[in-house]
Amino acid sequence: MLKTGQLLRRGALATAFTALAGLSAPGQAIQLEHSLKLKLGGQAEGDPSLGASDGENTEAYAEVSPSLRLQFTPEFSAYARAQGFLPSGEISAEEDERTIRSKGYIALREAWVEYGGLTSYPGEVLRLGLQRVRQADGQWLDRDIESLRWIFDTTLVQAQLGVARQFSSYRSDDVELSNSQKDRGYGYGDVGGQWTPGHFLGLRAVYAQDQDPPPEVGSLPEPEDKLAERRYGWLGLRAESGYYDYQRRDPLSYWAEFSLLRGDREAAQLAPDPGPAPAPGTPAAGTVLTVDQDRRSGRAIDLGLRAYFGEEFPLVIGAAYAAGSEEYEQTGLQSNRSRFTGTRSLVHRYNEAYRAELGNLQVATAFLAVPGERYDASLVYSRFRRDDANAPVVSHGLAVAPSVASRDLGKGVDLVLTRYFEDFGGISSYDDDMRSNLRLRASMFKPGAAYGEAAEKYYRVMLEATLWF
């Protein structure tokens, strides 16, 4: 059964679409654009516990994503996108940087309205609703989230300013939001522009605040309860030359960003499991012993350099380095997927198998890529180390944490091959941009000393055929 709040939110989205339909001028036809994405794929993965259990899994799946855009007037428009996902069995699928075992679902991914008449500048809109909020590098913002956003996108200046909060996953299988996103509101802004032709400077900021305090001392929290309240702010300054724009073919492209995190945190500390025979008076496992307050201060750096050898020899060679201090955390809205190799294919910046977060982490990356109109290929090598050998790291690919006080986390290799089509296997698609494709993603993570000598390699392979209509 749907909760009252969920019904109200879904009803509000439907009401907004209905109300906008009445904004079209009398006698003016509403312009309608629609598309359908069909994806058929298979996934094979190794044991995410690195050999501690028999966790290998192979499944096939189908995904259907219809979308609809309505243009009521030159200024007013609306958009909606849904998704249906059906696997052959229970499969490890990603949702908001989490790995969730799923047997299939139907979901609402976007439903928003926008107004583009606040100024006379083309590329300026005010957008309200469930929408994709994304930045090109994917390391701060890349999420379907309820947001009010002002977007200013011109040739010389690009900016956005917004507030956001996730209220629901809008999935039929009732998957809840992750604990970190429950009752958390965001404010964000980004501004950038060319200081000389082909070279850009940018500044961005995000503020996140949790609404509810942690559980009180002596209480026994439920598994779904949030154990920490955070008030964090991020500030980033960057210089770049279109590094994440795969259509640019400059001989040399670069990206350099320095980020700071400042904030306060209140976190509940739970009593550990004392074993099968606890001493009299020992608090039950999971009872809140203390609520600690601390000031967080972290920093991160992200560097990238890519060389393109020209159309006659379309080869890209590049290197990147990213480091986040022990107290640094990402915003919680990141995907870490981007086109940093210079191709149309999105590649996880921190290995598709390992899927690390940039906190207490150092990553050195080297890659080769072949970009093309009808094909592309990327081969990526990554080396992972911890900033603090005794502090944890976050990996969304593995089900185990490092067990040895070592900085060596391991290394990973990614191979992404894509072939693009105007039609696919005799099936015509209405896709002038050749988004229809056949794509192979193969990734391997070899654990380092931090995971112990008995840890085995972990792999993740996905083969997908995508058709756009």
What does this molecule look like?
The two termini are 34 Å apart. The radius of gyration is 23 Å and the shape is globular. The chain has one domain (4-20, 32-274, 284-468): Porin (Beta Barrel), CATH 2.40.160.100. With 469 residues, the chain is mainly beta. It has one helix and 24 strands.
Round the mean pLDDT to the nearest integer and report it: 88
Principal-axis shape equals globular
Query: Which structural class fits the helix and strand makeup?
Result: mainly beta
Strand content: over 45%
Helix count from the secondary structure assignment: 1
Alpha-carbon distance between the two ends: 34 Å
Enter the CATH topology name. Porin
CATH class: Mainly Beta
Number of strands: 24
Order of helices and strands: HEEEEEEEEEEEEEEEEEEEEEEEE
Helix content: under 10%
Largest sheet: 18 strands, antiparallel, barrel
Rg of Cα set: 23 Å
Give a quick precis of the structure.
With 469 residues, the protein is mainly beta. It has one helix spanning 4-21, and strands at residues 31-45, 57-71, 76-87, 91-95, 98-102, 105-115, 124-134, 142-153, 157-165, 184-196, 199-210, 228-240, 252-270, 288-308, 316-324, 337-338, 347-348, 361-370, 375-385, 408-421, 423-424, 427-428, 436-447, 458-468.
